Amino acid sequence: MTPVVDVQESARRYVAEFEAFSEDGGGSAPGWLSERQAAAMARFAEVGFPTTRQEAWRFTDVRAIAQKDFVRASAPIGRVVSPDAVDAFLLGDRDRYSAVFVGGYYDEELSSVAGLPIGVKLGSLASALETHGELIEQHLARYTTHDNPFTTLNTAFIDDGAFVFIPRGTVLDRPLQLVFVASPESDEPSVWHPRSLVIVEREVEASLVESYVAAGGGSYWTNAVTEVVVGEGARLNTYRIQREDGQAYHTATTQSYQERDSVYSCVTFALGASLTRHDINAVLDGEGAECTLDGLSLLTGRQHVDHHTTLEHAKPHCTSWEYFNGIFDERARGVFNGRIVVRPGAQRTDSKQTNNNLLLSERARADSQPQLEIYADDVKCTHGATLGPIDERQLYYLQTRGMGQDAARNLLTYGFCGEVLNAVTLDDLRRQLDELVRGRLAASVQKRGTR
Amino acid sequence: MLEIRNLHAGVEGAEILKGIDLTVNAGEVHAVMGPNGSGKSTLAQVLAGHSAYEVTAGSVTYDGRDLLGMDPDERAIAGVFLAFQYPVEIRGITNAYFLQSAINAVRKARGEEELDTLDFAELLEEKLKVIGWDDSLIHRAVNDGFSGGEKKRNEILQLAVLEPRLAVLDETDSGLDIDAVKAVAEAVNKLRSPDRAFVVVTHYQRILNYIVPDHVHVLSDGCIVRSGSRDLALELEAKGYDWLREESAVV
Predict the structure, then answer these.
(1) pLDDT in tens, A290-310
(2) Cβ pair A109, A81 in contact under 8 A
(3) Contact between chains at B49 and A400 (C-beta distance less than 8 A)
(4) Would the CB atoms of B102 and A398 count as touching at under 8 Å?
(5) Which residues contact B64 (CB under 8 A, 6 or more apart)?
(6) Nearest one of A152, A107, A390, A429 to A268, comparing CA atoms
(7) Helix (H) and strand (E) counts for chain B?
């Protein structure tokens, strides 16, 4: 058994690929970007894929990704997805604002950006590099760190993804939607590294829905990174729906940076993929900033999800709330690591973290770990975690109201989802997710009945 | 409607009920009183079907059926309702959704058509009107963050919606101020009917000023030591429980 060597060998494959990639795209990427990409690749070459010997990866074994020969999608060619297939994943009707990406690349035909308010940009990062180069230079890969090898890999292979820019004071009347459609070629495992940058200027009010979906099955790996900048006094609600194919791998980082008095929320749903690792890092770097990170994982079979969140309170008087619920059936497994960092001087920090895990089978498993690093003395940080099967008292209570075992279990599981679903303030989206969740629960009850 | 004969029951091997006999007819209100630890709540839970309580002897017949052989949900479908002493909180589910799910589970089991959201809203409005309450509890998560009084009111609201034939109220009055006791009692009075029976389990006589019982039973150390009319409750109020305990010890 020499997994470490295997992992390093697979890393070398990406190093070689990077050389070809940078020669290929060397002409189009601006110098500053090439430098950041080269630095990221150098870091990846140094550390390789993580192993379970590393603390941050203790419960998540990525060898399945490291050992597979994924072919990087380098253009949308040959990956045609019908508008109808995408429609099911979108909210609203014709007047929607949506940017659709197939295999990591922007698809103009499938997108709908007509009628956007003046100055608002929604579209391809590759195109925006030409039109908004200076602005992007200030932000792209400036918030992400080199701590996570998957993030560095994404940075190294930046080629396309979403670019969102909302200028000062804009109030959007409907959400911006980003849909990343996986459309794997059937014969070879594919990988894409979609990179997105969301810049929200001061006093904006907007919501953003980011979905990772599959049009057709097959073996593929999505390695996504999204950077979000929330300007002074701006309010941005984001929703991230991951419903990849059940065979897929999904690694991702959501990195946000907030200025003073800004309000940012990220409600994330992990509903698909066989292996998910999602790092959510939020930096509150201005007084009075508020951040909410909520999450719902609903997994079965042998699915695995690992959420690593970091809330970094860098300035005083900031508030953060975190509420992650996980539901694991059969042999599914969940990992939650919630890190809260309070920097020196970040007095009056108020941070609350909750992680609840519902285990629907004896073979399901969940690990929860809070990690508090507090370097200020006038702060309020609380955390709590629960883990276990459905509460017998609740089950009995529902039974005395006429519900059978299955119906009662189902309703309680739904309630567990409801705690996070209720955080979705977009009615259309909540309805869509509600349906999705109910469908899943009904299917799992049916399956249990036949077991 | 309900025939309890020589009921012995306990929890984890400890016998709590030591031979209860009780007959409740449709339309009647029975009060079961007794000091703490006398077995009042055990009796209520045994009637509802809590699996932690083991029945070691005796029988309970409800509408001619063997109640003890039925699961808790079957009992509910047959029209038995327990208002919990400590109602359970369920986060993430609104009261309205919970009530609709409950009534539809019952209707489905009875072969009746399920109510859609609109029909249910109508029914709910009608029931609230009957008991004279507003809809302030309806859109909140079930008992989540409710005050003691709100939780008890919520039990009565469920009673109103589910329309049981036999309603057991387990210390619904405990911990409530007098206004809340009155509100609960008034609602219960409006739900009294010739084909519905109530068993009001209580530690205090106070609620019986508002829900006037047809029969009063005193439970002590797992046995009914005395049964009588409403006057018995008043006597207990004046004298406390001790004289009964002494009396039964002599017997």
Answers:
(1) 999 999 999 999 999 999 999
(2) no
(3) yes
(4) yes
(5) none
(6) A429
(7) 8, 12
Within 10 angstroms of residue B195's Cβ, the number of other Cβ atoms is 9
- The upper half-sphere exposure of residue A35, i.e. CA atoms within 13 Å in the direction of its Cβ, equals 6
d(CA B89, CA B95): 10
A358 to chain B, closest Cα gap in Å: 13
Contacts (Cβ under 8 Å, ≥6 apart) of A326 = A295, A296, A297, A298, A299, A305, A334, A336, A355, A356, A357, A358, A366
Please report the pLDDT score of residue A204 as a whole number: 98
Rounded distance between C-alpha atoms, residue B218 and residue B40, angstroms:
9
Amino acid found at B89: E
* Model pTM score: 0.90
Question: Looking at the partner chain, which of A399, A414, A419 has a beta carbon nearest the beta carbon of B71?
Answer: A399
- Which residues of A lie closer than 8 Å to B, measured between beta carbons? 391, 393-394, 396-405, 407-408, 411-412, 414-419, 421-422
List chain A residues with pLDDT less than 50: 1-5
- The closest CB to that of B91, out of A399, A403, A419, belongs to A419
Mutate to test the interface with A, among B41, B73, B110, B161 (most CBs of A within 10 A): B73
Q: How many CB pairs under 8 A join A and B?
A: 78
- In this prediction, residue A285 carries a pLDDT of 98
Residue found by looking up tokens 């406390």 in the block: B240
Nearest by CB: B88 against A394, A417, A418: A394
Which DSSP category does A56 fall into?
A: G
Contact A400, A373 (CB under 8 A): no
Q: For position A2, what pLDDT does the model report? A: 41
Is A417–B158 a contact, with Cβ atoms under 8 angstroms apart? no
Q: Which of A320, A315, A321, A357 is nearest to A336 (CA)?
A: A357
Hey, how many other C-beta atoms are within 10 angstroms of the C-beta on A126? 18
- Compute the distance between CA of residue A20 and CA of residue B187 in angstroms, rounded to an integer: 78
> What are the tens digits of pLDDT across the range A33-72?
999 999 999 999 999 999 999 999 999 999 999 999 998 8
Contacts of B87 in chain A (CB under 8 A): 397
Cα(B227)–Cα(B34) distance, rounded to whole angstroms?
12
CB contact set of B58 (below 8 Å; sequence gap of 6+)? B4, B5, B6, B7, B8, B9, B19, B20
What SS3 state is found at B168?
A: strand
Q: Give the residue on B whose Cα is nearest the Cα of A417.
A: B92
Query: In chain B, what residues touch A434 (CB-CB under 8 Å)?
Result: none
CA distance A14 to B134: 65
- Considering chain B, what percentage of its residues have pLDDT values greater than 70? 97
* Nearest beta carbon to residue B72 from set A400, A418, A422: A400
Look up residue A59 and give its DSSP letter.
T
Query: Which chain A residues are within 8 Å of B141, Cβ to Cβ?
Result: 415, 418
On the CB side of A243, CA atoms within 13 Å amount to: 16
B149 - beta bridge partners?
A: none
Amino acid A1: pLDDT:
41
Q: Confirm if B4 and B57 have CB atoms less than 8 A apart.
A: no
Q: For residue B101, what is the nearest residue in chain A, using CA coordinates?
A: A403
Domains of chain B: 2-250 (3.40.50.300)
Contacts of B71 in chain A (CB under 8 A): 399
Angle at B237 between CA B27 and CA B34, to 5 degrees: 65
CA A337, CA A81: separation in Å to the nearest integer?
A: 36
> H or E segment at A128?
helix A125-131
